[in-house]
Amino acid sequence: MLTKAPKGTNDILPDKSHIWQHIEKEILKICKEYNYKEIRTPVFEHTELFERGVGDTTDVVEKEMYTFNDKGGRSITLRPEGTASVSRSYIENGIFNTPQPSKLFYNIACYRYEKNQAGRYREFHQFGAEVLGGGEPSIDAELMSLAMLLYKRVGLTNLKLNINSIGCPECRKEYNQKLREFLRPNFDNLCDTCKNRFEKNPLRILDCKSSVCKDIAKGAPMLIDCICDECRDHFEAVKKALENMGIEYFIDPYIVRGLDYYTKTVFEIIADNKNSNSTICGGGRYDGLIAQLGHTTTPAAGFAMGLERLILTMEEQGVKFPEENVPDIYIGSMGDAAVSFASGLAFKLREKGASVEIDHLKRSVKAQMKFANKIGAKNAVIIGDNEMAENMANIKNMENGEEVKCALDAQSILDVISK
Ligand code: ATP
Ligand code: MG
After folding, report:
1. How far, in Å, CA of 82 to CA of 84, rounded?
2. Angle at CA 212, nearest 5°, toward 208 and 215?
3. Rounded CA gap, 204 and 219, in Å?
4. In the chain, which stretches have pLDDT less than 50?
């Protein structure tokens, strides 16, 4: 137990963290280009927020939340997703008073008590973007384009953008009735969760993972065929905006998305993964959520993408990862005076922005050079009594073996290694 992390969690180890940093850098870059500002919210919230904000007929709330009472007896939940928290903060901090729409993003760890499998963990990471205070179809299309462009930038290919419209509460009322009629003959065979959803929110049944429920739902009437004129116009405008940007999409009438309070547009981005879960991004419009949390009705839309699944997909597609970060120079040393001088020199070089490693284990010169090689240092220099006396450094380029002499000071060394 002591040296085993809880099931469903992953350490991001030092030999992989540069990949995460690379993706995070791309996220920051694209969010700047699209003018989305970062928002950071707490890891835990009041449980009611997710019950209300995610919806109490969703898998997330019904089965997957990490909920506990804190020492004050309040029910607390580790966030299973980001949208509810962002919406809570938008209301609480009066972000609705700033120029609208508010375009926000987050890059967070999320917690869901799920069966552990490839691409499905109990702690995982999501990059998400949300636009609150705007109901125009251009927003839906902008969000999708941001997600697709990010995937392209990190080198993913063969992704499928599937879109659908699940209408508004008005058009859904009529549809829910039709769907119930369709499902009723098989009601007794539905799983217990879906039986419970039948009256409250039958649409959720189309999103059930059980194969029996999936079979029962086959051939069900499609919501997209029943949506009202306003919702249809919105959907057509989203499609047009995607076409204007040259983004290919497919209509998948069976997407309903895992969260309640979605309205109109819903979408998923699918990778053709063989060994892991393939939905790498999900999103949509949630015009009903802010009102559900007690504020005035405020249209909003967003998406969230799983970063573990993104990296797994990069691996499966054989995308070339960026090189690991390596030091610009290794400064070895021999003898007490040189050891002390080396650490001062390393500091001066680091001050100037160079990446530097030194010997911390009092190794022999041979072992120091071996170490420099192993850690992939681009250059190496060994300082001993002679170098100190002559004020001279012999810098070895570890890639081609060439050696260059220069004065033993930070600026001269920097000039050599930055050539
Ligand atoms: P799924 O159908 O795979 O359970 P979901 O509908 O529950 O996904 P969302 O709540 O929409 O997922 O979350 C957005 C994205 O976060 C998903 O598309 C996926 O990439 C990622 N994700 C969701 N749950 C997990 C998890 N347990 N582990 C890793 N990534 C996850
Ligand atoms: Mg899920």
Report:
1. 6
2. 85
3. 15
4. none
